[in-house]
Amino acid sequence: MKTITTHYIDGAFVESHGREVMDIIKPANGQVIGRVTLGDEEDTRRAIAAANTAFASFGRSTKEERAKILRRLHQAASARFDDLTAAMVEEYGGVVQFAGLIVKTGINAFLAAEQALQEIPLIHSWGKTTVTLEPVGVAGLITAWNANALFICLKLASAVAAGCTVVIKPSELSSIQTRVLVEAFHQADLPKGLLNVVTGLGNVVGAELVRNPDVAKISFTGSVAVGETIMRDGAKTMKRVTLELGGKSPTIMLDDAALGQAIPSALIMALMNSGQACAAGTRLLVPDSRLVEVKQGLRDAMHAFAVGDPADPKTAVGPMVSQKQYERIQSYIRKGIEEGAEVLVGGEGHPEGFEMGYFVKPTIFVNVKNDMTIAQEEIFGPVLSVIAYDSEDEAIRIANDSKYGLHAAVLGTDLRRARRVASQIRAGRVVINNMADDPQAPWGGFKYSGTGREYGRYGIEAFLEPRAILE
Ligand code: NAD
If you placed Cys at 378, which of 165, 175, 246, 400 could pair as Cys (CB 3.0 to 4.6 Å)? Predict the structure, then answer.
């Protein structure tokens, strides 16, 4: 049983002023594995004050000083790679292989930010004008539970590269993972007050960060509903905001796709992180001419996506994070059936043998129309909707017929054609033929998927303000 009673403020672990205690539950079996004492507004204000004091000097740091800190953060986090992965598997139910990938991406974010920082010209002058890119101030970083360690590392790396000091409000469902990470950062010999972490509820700690006038910027990863609140409430203190929100990403399978590769690719994109992924490709658009083959191929390929113990390397789909999330997935599966979609694989209830914990059946719906609820709303679980189309233009129209625009994929053999289709998708990222990644490429959404970008120079620029000095 793990007990966490402290926050990280001004370079030290300090007892929580907030007294509310929350159970930490293991999603694979529903057992209580720990308790965390939640912070309150007073803890948050103390953390903001520490970050504000530290900003007076860190805000004037040089590129080289920031680069050194980023390298130390990378080293410190790397030393806890195994512990972090294990915590993500136990506390969140992340399947071990994917959890390792997420943690590695987070750790590498520090080096990627260092590289991007070296490439950003922070000073630009011409004639008698000098423009410098200045850190925006104290940043509040608020994360979701589905890749909490990655979000913390990514946001912290960009903020530090820009010269900002931070107060992190991790997901309250990720307290153990956050603790491992903060213990690691504590070894990185950071200037006091640069990094502060207060674990607590969104409407308490998160809301204080959003309304506090000493916080200049909020970088948030989470739901559209909370993103809207942050934008509205942050306006009162003119907060700069980066919002990384939801998605309902299309995977367009073109009629020349090699199904032997395209079908597993489409399933990986739909089921990665047990379907609890903002970028999950949950709408698979299939040409009418190949629908029969694709249905059979999906049914066959699903045997490779085993549900099971997230700690088992053979498992592809683990439990959902919580009972609430389990019920949310069930209600969407029911809704899909009620609205006339046909279950090809999966369906309601627990998979056989996994009645304990928050396991759901990975589910594929066919005969889905794009205006059905399951094709429009983000489910955030392993539920894939197959939608048929009759022409390339129709596929593009359906792909863009969504309030979201975070991510998309195009699967096809003729790369020129795949690129032409990709260039017409209204989404922040479009991948061709596999779940490609590049730590310098921007990440973020069009439309309701949010505002602003993370990763690389785009992520750092989100924490900078230009100042012009003219003589
Ligand atoms: P959520 O919006 O419920 O919570 C996210 C964070 O916001 C948590 O730390 C929560 O405590 C905090 N919060 C809640 N209310 C708040 C308030 N009033 N003020 C400030 N903070 C508040 O989201 P979730 O359930 O943790 O995560 C799932 C959502 O995150 C999905 O919609 C998913 O698509 C999205 N997501 C987006 C990305 C991306 O990069 N675009 C990545 C992962 C997840």
Answer: 246
